[in-house]
Predict the 3D structure of the following.
Amino acid sequence: MKNKKLIRKRFRKAVFTRDNYTCVVCGVKPDSEDDIDPHHIENRNLMLNGGYVLENGITLCSKCHMKAEIYHSTGIALEGWRPEDLYKKIHSSKEEAIKASNELND
């Protein structure tokens, strides 16, 4: 992947901008960017080019991010926290995210 640091920075900015720097799940808009995260809905290690695309990102506050990460660490998603639930919140899908990630090199 070309210049991973720049790709991460662009991903973060794009996700936060689309979501108005607000947690998409609970609606919290913190005073600082340090209190929100650009969460990869589908594990970035499972996608070509790391899944650093808007279609695979969602802005979450720290508390919501911890809940979403349970799926990545255990494979078990809490009700409402499955990847497909999060994709719906940003009007995307795993298929759209994979396609966009694959196109990063194009």
Observations:
- The chain has a mean pLDDT of 91.
- The longest strand covers residues 36-40.
- The chain has one domain: 4-105.
